[in-house]
Design goal:
Aminopeptidase, alpha+beta, GNAT_dom, seven-stranded mixed beta sheet, 33% strand
Length: 168
């Protein structure tokens, strides 16, 4: 496995992995995979990482901003998707660890994540990488696809505070 920065040439594989996550019905409220321009515009330019296995991108992790206010400059939302072929092989943990390190190198002191409670593997991954549960937003949105279509979904809020950045 190789972890490296995401490149535009990775778009087909990144979007394929995203589509696999959408199809589970437990990864996002999104119902359709965006085109690359939409994906690109919705996320910060860095850090963006991919995990490559045998020359093919099988997982990705990116950051999104949480606010345009300057006091939140070091707070970001982390997102990770692991394709079916790479699940339960340590790829997610290696990739999320690399994203944490890259985000700290860019000055982020807090990472947030919102995860459906049914996605126990993602919650366990985040906890293994130092995130803690802050709480649960009840009925935050109604699902339009997947096994819970038509149902209101809760989201578990998680946070990871750096022990190296923003501690002074």
């Amino acid at each position: 496995m190789k972890i490296r920065p995401m490149a535009q040439a990775d778009a087909p594989d990144v979007l394929r992995v995203y589509a696999e996550g959408i199809a589970t019905g437990h990864a996002t409220f999104e119902t359709e995979t965006p085109d690359w321009d939409g994906f690109d515009r919705a996320r910060l330019k860095t850090p963006r990482l991919v995990a490559e296995i045998d020359g093919r991108v099988e997982a990705w992790a990116v950051m999104s901003g949480v606010s345009s206010r300057c006091c939140y400059a070091g707070v970001g939302e982390s997102t990770i998707y692991v394709g079916e072929a790479a699940r339960r092989k340590g790829v997610g943990r290696a990739l999320l660890t690399a994203l944490i390190e890259a985000s700290e190198a860019e000055g982020y002191w807090t990472l947030n994540a919102g995860i459906f409670p049914e996605n126990v593997a993602s919650i366990a991954l985040h906890e293994a990488c130092g995130y803690r549960r802050l709480g649960r937003q009840a009925r935050v949105g109604k699902m339009r696809h997947g096994p819970m279509a038509g149902q209101w979904r809760d989201v578990v809020l998680m946070e990871r505070r750096s022990d190296r950045v923003g501690v002074e």
